[in-house]
Fold this sequence. Notes:
Blueprint: H1 2-5, E1 8-10, E2 12-13, E3 36-38, E4 46-49, E5 62-63, E6 76-79, H2 85-99, H3 109-130, E7 132-135
Parallel strand pairs: 2-4
Antiparallel strand pairs: 1-3, 4-5, 6-7
Helix pairs in contact: 2-3
Amino acid sequence: MLADSFNLDLSLPTNPVSTRYSDTTGKSDSVIDLMFLCSGSSKLNNHAIHLDWQLTSDHAPLTVTISIEEEFVQTAKLSLLKKSDEEEAFIKEVSSIIKSLDTLNLLSQESLEQVINLLVARIKQAWNANARKVNITKYSKKW
């Protein structure tokens, strides 16, 4: 089925009524307007049929509510300028951190994880000490 190939399911209306209203005597109303929504979505799983919005049309409009959630947009980041004094200091500090690691007693996974966690913490400290906050703008480079 075409809908399956786009990961869509037939949506069930919150108010199951006909969507097309016949103006010809003897012809019955029908449900010919369908809506397909994202499969497995808990937020987009049904739609509403609005009989009161029909106006002069013989079809009732269908609507789905899409919630817009607040999203964090990062506007600044820490950065090191290439070939700057700060970059050089960071590289020297990381080199020193790596040289000073005690790797003689790596006899278990736990001791390895401790050394790795210490390495990560010290590199983060070096980064925070040397990097500078820069604002992200539309003119910022993507890399």
